[in-house]
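thread: overnight batch results

M.L. [08:02]
morning all. the overnight job finished for the chain we discussed friday. pasting input first so we're all looking at the same thing
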Amino acid sequence: MNPGVGADDSALGAPGSVRATADRDLLSALAGNQACRDRSVAYRTCRVVNASMGLMQEQKAGGKRIRAVALAAILLVLFLLGPLVWWAVTSLMGGERLCDAPSQFALWVCILCPALVAAALVAGWVRSRP
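M.L. [08:03]
and the structure it wrote out:
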């Protein structure tokens, strides 16, 4: 029967029944009587976390797939253009003139193919940006 406790409650405007309810709620929480409510919150939280984790994994897989396709395209272009570039360089070094038709065709292909690939990559990059 501490007079200071009652005076503090009346000064704050909190009646004694609110304090008793708060004490009862605290005791029931400490005793584990609210486990059902805690379990439902835990299940909901688990579902939300699993859903967001699945979404993050899908985004990572999409990024890996895009990188793999880009790398495959670059390697394909290099393997297709490599022999042509080799032939163009050896023919020019071997004494053929730049004005010959095969040399001009090879140089045009060596210039236009990488330009087309670069344009396609830039177009894909611009389209994927938000």
